[in-house]
Predict the structure.
Amino acid sequence: MVDTWEELEKSIVNCQKCRLAKGRTNIVFGIGNKNADIMFVGEGPGADEDRLGEPFIGKAGKLMNMAFDAIGLKREDVYIANIVKCRPPLNRNPEFDEASACLNYLRAQVILVKPKIIVLLGSIALQNILGKEYKITASRGKWIEQKGILYMPTWHPAALLRDETKKIDFINDLKEVLERNNTI
Ligand code: URA
């Protein structure tokens, strides 16, 4: 287990733990406030993220930023990371062994950030963190507490691009997160 951000970043820089390493341009480690109360976890980098090494900067990220603006949340106040740090080919879902090979990096990020709340963006984040028995449709918008951390599953921002009606749920879930964060 690593004790510092420097050690963690050093441990990942040449990662070859799974087949995604072959296709990456950049490792997309994570970004934001390293002492954030709120952490966001997505699925894995897309093409834009792979090119620039930063999570959620493509279309889905822009939509997420718009939702942040709408509720007065600043991107730099939260910490944003993904289940897998390298882009899956053609943006397919990460496979089980790829996610398990990568999860220790995310666990280390959570230990270092010590968030009060983790927002799980979509079913890949939900199922890899809390378990396959959780379904995003049934779980979204409902708090789940485990080992002192509050989890809020919500839609993945890319789902909002496909179905506009989900935007309102997403904004409401984020508002709920902000309100809860102010009371704990
Ligand atoms: N989708 C994700 O899940 N993560 C990103 O960083 C970008 C798009």
Remarks:
- Strands lie at 31-32, 38-42, 79-82, 117-121, 144-146, 149-154.
- The chain has a mean pLDDT of 97.
- The chain has nine helices and six strands.
- Residues 130 and 146 are 9 Å apart (CA to CA).
